[in-house]
Amino acid sequence: MTAAIASDTVEEDVFGGVDSHADTIHVAVISDNGGHLADAEFATTAPGYAAALAFLAAHGQVVATGVEGTASYGAGFTRAARAHGFQVVEVNRPDRAERRRTGKSDPIDAYAAARAALSGRATSAPKDDTVAGIRALHNAARSAVKARTAALNQIGNILITAPDAIRAKYGHLKGTARTEALARSRPAGDACHTGVLAALKSLARRVMDLTAEHDTLTRALNTEVTTVNPGLRAAYGVGPDTAAQLLITAGGNPERMRTEASFAALCGAAPVPASSGRTNRHRLSRGGDRAANAALYRIALTRMSGDARTRTYVIRQTAAGRTKKEIIRMLKRAIAREIFRCLTNMVTIPDIADLRPLRQAKNITLTAVAQHFGVWPTTISRLERGLSRDDDLTHAYRDWLQAA
């Protein structure tokens, strides 16, 4: 009789919840009717994760486990749980109203995560590790840009108050010319001049090193994103940094987003009603992942300046009385739809490897090609090297070369 009761207890459906931190995770277990069963704390190590999973399994058949911070502090536990066949769902932290009502502690948060998994409020699968390398390269490249910007600002600030001789020599220079001149300088003279020039030279060399570092990281990032999703990278206006951000936002398993509307909402590109009285309009969304929203914004600006279809669309919407903000919102929503297709489907891109050899074999210059199609030579060069994509121009260019 006792064995039968123990067997029934083991087979009871339970739900888990995890509140994650840097050094510890707090795990809670509830029954399928929401009753609290047990909770415990474990270390964020491989043995700790194994003990936490054994703790969950000891209380019954684990239907789902809600984890708070699956892409940050809970990433290690999430990997271990999925490797052992546990279903993990991503849980957002409780809102402020609920925290004010129920309090804040590790057990409270862990039980709240378990209830979110039980109720179905948390259903999103966590991101997998496919884009972990892209995320690391992207963060490193952006930190290099921030550090370079800080160094450039310091150079400008020092030159404002520098001695007249230094200001006269370097103040009128701009950009790379100023950085290279300062990096070649030889601090000499009195103590004031020597100290200022030494600081400027050090900052200039830092800028040059960070620029080289950023270029190296960007090349590696471009290789990674092109390998993971060549269709996304080849889309018009999508560079390495933008493609990386969109892949990071979607994760390596974008099938967890059921519709393109959910991806648009995730990127903060879903239209938000802003109607009142006789006014019927929508405004820009201020929610979602702001970094992904900024990526869509950069794509929209690039297409508004260089894509013929987009420029025609902008002219048409402007004539209809829409403002620039409204047009950009509509463009971002349309771009989100296109990006979602690139993320969830294998998008074929036209082969361009034959274009340059074919042109060179017929002794045709880039200038001649550009003049024929009415574009800049740089456009043709970038098309041949795969740095930009224009399917219509690619097909027309190949047909023209073959007929030449």
Automatic annotation (TrEMBL):
<dbReference type="InterPro" id="IPR001387">
    <property type="entry name" value="Cro/C1-type_HTH"/>
</dbReference>
<dbReference type="InterPro" id="IPR002525">
    <property type="entry name" value="Transp_IS110-like_N"/>
</dbReference>
<dbReference type="Pfam" id="PF02371">
    <property type="entry name" value="Transposase_20"/>
</dbReference>
<dbReference type="InterPro" id="IPR010982">
    <property type="entry name" value="Lambda_DNA-bd_dom_sf"/>
</dbReference>
<dbReference type="Pfam" id="PF01548">
    <property type="entry name" value="DEDD_Tnp_IS110"/>
</dbReference>
<feature type="domain" description="HTH cro/C1-type">
    <location>
        <begin position="355"/>
        <end position="386"/>
    </location>
</feature>
<protein>
    <submittedName>
        <fullName>IS110 family transposase</fullName>
    </submittedName>
</protein>
<dbReference type="InterPro" id="IPR047650">
    <property type="entry name" value="Transpos_IS110"/>
</dbReference>
<dbReference type="InterPro" id="IPR003346">
    <property type="entry name" value="Transposase_20"/>
</dbReference>
